Amino acid sequence: MEEIRNTTESNEEIEIDLSRLFNEIKKKLKFIILLAVIGAIVAFIFTTMFVIKKYASSADIYPKTNTTDTGTLDYNALNANTKMVNNYMAIIQGDSVLDVVTKNLKLEDRGEDFVKSTISVTNEANTEIIKITATTDDPKLSKDIVDETVSQFISYVKDKIDVKNIMILNQAKVEETPVAPNVKMNVVIGALLGIMISGGIVVLRFLLDKRLHTKDDVEAYLEIPVLAEVPYFEDK
């Protein structure tokens, strides 16, 4: 019975503490909002002024399926193209193609693996379409890398494995809109960090505050009832 009473008293004490903590957070709400706004502003300024913008350009290529003499699709060739897609993707990202791209665009001074680091090659789901994307800090350079990569790949497979059916579905374009950084996302993250920091400060100050604020605090600390209270009057 004594244990149950102690547990109940403990739960009541926790509820009182949580209630006071919630009230403390409400009182400091302006401070929390202020730090959230500051965090968002700092994130916006840092992202727009100090983070290097990245621009992407893409082209789509497709291994065209030959038709039979009757004008129908050659399904053997279609199956062969499907199986060759992964091979084509590996060739595009290989040194045999990208080294020539680096040389032709005179990018040797940027490092041996610069072009490789900018290129990504993906395959559209359930298709034989291959998307080649280059991402750099210069929109025109991104386009040039894609164009040269496509050109060298087509030349390579034509010369080395006698593949002449690669067609370009979508040409690369100069895209002036950066793909990175994500300003909106960074601003939201900055605001959330401001809320977390300010909220942490409020909670920490609350937990470290050992002062007695209410009659209940005094009774709990001294373990004796309070018989009287002296009202507090501010000086006018």
TrEMBL record:
GO molecular function, one term: protein tyrosine kinase activity
Residues that span the membrane, as ranges: 31-52, 187-208
Highest taxon in the source lineage: Bacteria
Keywords: Cell membrane, Membrane, Transmembrane, Transmembrane helix
Membrane-topology descriptor: Multi-pass membrane protein
Keyword Iron-sulfur: no
Record's keyword annotation contains Isomerase: no
GO cellular component, as recorded: plasma membrane
All residue ranges annotated as the Polysaccharide chain length determinant N-terminal domain in the record: 15-105
Domain Tyrosine-protein kinase G-rich: 158-205
Compartment(s) where it occurs, according to its Swiss-Prot or TrEMBL record: Cell membrane
Pfam family, one: Wzz
Assigned protein family: Belongs to the CpsC/CapA family.
Name of the protein: Capsular polysaccharide biosynthesis protein
